Amino acid sequence: MKGDKAVIQALNKVLGQSLIAINQYFLHARVARHWGLEALNDSFYHQSIQEMKWSDDLIERILLLEGLPNLQDLGKILIGEDVPEIIECNLRLEKQKLAIITDAITLCEQHRDYVSRQLLVKLKDGNEEYEDWLDTQEDLMKEVGLQNYIQSQMSDDKAP
């Protein structure tokens, strides 16, 4: 099934963001684990795996549309050096991804590719959920203080 070039390009742009997220979240998970923050490790690792599954769905869709998935055009990974910066970097990436996904959804609607649109809406919903979780973590850091927040992340019973 030959897909529209603009739709394939938009799907590849979303794929690129998802590939960045896989690496960023995986590295942040391992940094958190190294620091003994098991709950954050689990949360970031889970999100990295979720991004991998979404990337797989995007690759399958691009191939079905007879496009070529672009796994080479990776952008910059945002790496935090402490807990607040890690949360902030992940939040920045989620907001960036949301804008790209929203643009891709609009493009799919214009080209009447409702199957691709449905896939993108699923990704958008997942990204909004993770963005909300990150916002909550920032709020918790402010409410309970950074040291108390970090202490609460040392066990794995807080992971979403």
TrEMBL record:
PROSITE patterns to which the protein is assigned, alphabetical: BACTERIOFERRITIN, FERRITIN_LIKE
Gene Ontology CC annotation, any one: cytosol
EC number annotated for this UniProt entry: 1.16.3.1
Superkingdom, natural source: Bacteria
Xref: Pfam families: Ferritin
Alphabetical UniProt keywords: Heme, Iron, Iron storage, Metal-binding
Binding residue positions for Fe cation 3: 46
Cofactor(s) the record lists: heme b
Residues at which Fe cation 1 binds: 51
SUPFAM superfamilies named in the record: Ferritin-like
Any one of the GO BP annotations: intracellular iron ion homeostasis
GO molecular function: ferric iron binding; ferroxidase activity; heme binding
Residues given in the record as heme b binding sites: 52
InterPro entries membership: Bacterioferritin, Ferritin-like, Ferritin-like_diiron, Ferritin-like_SF, Ferritin_DPS_dom
Catalysed reactions listed for this entry: 4 Fe(2+) + O2 + 4 H(+) = 4 Fe(3+) + 2 H2O; Fe(2+)(in) = Fe(2+)(out)
Domain Ferritin-like diiron: 1-145
Family affiliation: Belongs to the bacterioferritin family.
Function per UniProt: Iron-storage protein, whose ferroxidase center binds Fe(2+), oxidizes it using dioxygen to Fe(3+), and participates in the subsequent Fe(3+) oxide mineral core formation within the central cavity of the BFR protein shell.
Name used for this protein in its record: Bacterioferritin
